[in-house]
Amino acid sequence: MTTPDPLAGWRSNPFFVLEVPTDATPADVERAGQRLLALLAVGSANAETYPTPLGPATRDAEKIRDALAALRDPAQRVLHELWANVAPADGPASGHSNAGPCAGPWEEAEHALGWSGLWAR
Amino acid sequence: MTTRPLYVGIDLGTTNSTVAVFDGEEITLIRNNQGSVLTPSVVRIDARGNVVVGARARRFLDSDPANTRSEFKRLMGTTHALEFPASGTSRKPEELSAEVLKSLRQDVADQLGVAPECAVVSVPALFELHQTAAASDAAHRAGFERVELIQEPVASAIAAGWSQSGSNGPWLVYDLGGGTFDVSLLETREGLLRVVGHDGDNFLGGRDFDRALMDVALAKLAADGIVIDRANSRHAQALRRLQVAAEDTKIELTRATQAPLFVAGLDVDGQVVDVDLAVTRAEYEAAIGPLIDRSLAICARLLAANGLGEGALERVVLVGGPTVTPLLRTRVRAVLGADFGEGLDPMTLVAQGAALFAGTVALDGRPVAKAPPSTGPKVWLQFPAMTSDLTPFVVGKLLEQTNTIKQVRIIRSDGEWQSDPTPCEADGTFAVMVRLLPRQNTSFQVQGLDGSDSAVPLQPASFSITHGITLGDPPLSRSVGVALANNRVQVYFNRGSPLPIRRTFVLHTVETVHPGSEEHVLKVPIVQGEFAWAHLCRLVGTLEIPSTALTAPLPVGSEVELMLELDRGGQLRAQARIAGIDQIFDRVALLMTPQVSLETLADAQVKLRTRAADLSRAAFLDHSGKTAARLSAAMPRLDEAEQNIKAARGGDLDAGEQARRTLTDFDALLAEIEAEQAWPELGRKIEETFAMAVSWVAGYGNEAERSTLNNTYQACKRAFVARDSDEVERQLAVIERLGVAAYFRHPAAWEWEFERCAAGVGESTDLRRATELVAKGRDAVRQRDRESIERIVRELWGLAPVDHDEQKLGHGSGLRMR
Fold this sequence. Notes:
Chain A has six helices and two strands. Chain A has about 120 residues and is mostly helical.
């Protein structure tokens, strides 16, 4: 059983994944995503990790596409901007350890622990 | 033409099909041997077995309807075989679609001298997975080696976006084809085309307009004493001839206020009848009004789902033959309150968009070498074949280890621009930003630079990029998941998820499967729909693990790592890995809608009517006018299903298919209303669940959990007041989770759980194993070995009995979550 990472959702903030600032234009976001997808396609090892305030995280094509889809939606983008901007330079701020726009690994944790449907039994 | 790319796009329509090609700059519509860009999707097979497609086949719809088939697109992905009695053969709908595609491929070859090997074929956005698979199969049968599918509204949007750039607000593609209705909400910002969402009805199209007109004609004939009955199989031929005539009358009524409907020598019960009727536009419009309203209700639903109100749309793009109907245009403009996109041909827009899409994914259909030969070290280039970005990145990797190339340079073919020398990384990769020429196809040369900055040729030496639009990933139109043995659905992909997508979950078998036993198959049903109950979702495929293929027994509770993957066109791939025996299964069988007998459908229709009547009565007793009105508004769909079952008895396969779907939708509606009527019960459930959770969280939770529980309870109550059942269920699940987490922190929790499992051991799916586990568990309890108790309980959960009624409803699934 793996211990769920409560910060996984925050680490996967699309701005971190795509390595673009929160004021990037839609064209900048697309260009960054297209570049990363291409780098991953040719097998660039550098493209497989990205920096976050909590240290490096890994990304794949699916994560990049999800990040692009999230930032294309203006409503989602606003939320992600908010969460990307609350990150302090040297670590997570208090109060957002298991929150954020992405719910994190709760669902997987529930299944891994065998909780699903247990209450009903 | 062969010196330029050949991007082929095909609109495989219910009534007509079209093929377009794009060469990187211009789109050309391909004409068939009759000189038309529209090829009727009609196939005839004569007594000698000769196959004729298109207009030449359509002519026989009237005189030889038994051996001439049309409108088979709506039957794709079903097990129906269409008979051709003269030749004594039968063909599956996808085989007939393959004939149409083959004919279009030949038209390209005749006009351009090249038979394309790749193509993009459009499919309705709401096509289910088995229908998508059938479309892909048809294209392969037609001789295309590589096929990409594109959702029709996305194709229309690309074509509309290509010719009308500069728009920034939301816009709508209203696509009413021969057999299907798709509506898509789109947004274009800085050249990026994004499908915000879509909706539609797979069984609403021009064909239904024909039917409505036929009903007018049948009523007029009945008034003259000539009764033609849809339910009478002896009238099937007469009905088909009438339908062909009705289609012509319908077209005429778009221009005239009155049109004749004439069929000579119609055989009705052995009597020869000349049908000569006059139909007014007013009569026709009265008949099709409800169908147009149905489409507009779907548009309203889509706009509401995306928070858009009246007047929010910038424009509406009309696609499909039926959209030339004057009444439709008037109603659409009045209800949606936006102007129509100008200069767009509703009949060919989809094919044009499909060809443009082939350009964006670089699906060049030329069968020969696509670039002149070059020498030098090989480089792997990645770049967008089409983009709205004037300065995109070109990424590459040197495939051969060479110490000579230190940098690369990219030079635009017009000589007006070149990149700075860009160093290669240690692994040979590089990324260069290039500058495109606006609104055209720009060619570039790529060259390596050695230590002294001398040019080294690379292969390929050149590439090109078209400046146009960037297409956002299309969203999935319906959620996809796996049915479980308890009739619930493990959702893999939610509606709206961007495609392509892939996800893996670990599921567990509910019973032991021994290798070699012929009759035993472990079923993994794949379903599509928005319901939590599997039986309300549509079964679109089954991944079967036959016991004959197993190399070792698969004990109950075995882990099955199940991966589902969907590509951009909605094609499904599934793979099950059984970790215990290290075997992989990936054959999705039965990716077809099984045929349901008309008796079963009729029986279901009667039962649904009774259920609806009971719910209606309950709604009146509860003074729930809203529910009663909802039921009353839905009843015509049930009447329609009844009529369709009758028509299917008369030989109309499409009507049977439509009835099946209408009944499933109606069943889902009743389930929704039943859930609403059980609303007070849900209120009690919230209180009970919260009471249970709070008692554990208070004792064994931390401060954050206590606070979360309280907030979740408040959110749950708010959702209850707002009558948002999905949100209530979501919040309830969180409450349960918090309670369960705290419960298992109690030092005796696993022991209690063990005792509960031990009490029910007699019902286990593997009694021997369960008994063994209980004995081991008793020892562990005596020794206070909590770790072992926990492990044993987890295994016992996996052996819990299956409710066979629920399993049957869950499409026979052999899997469950832990």
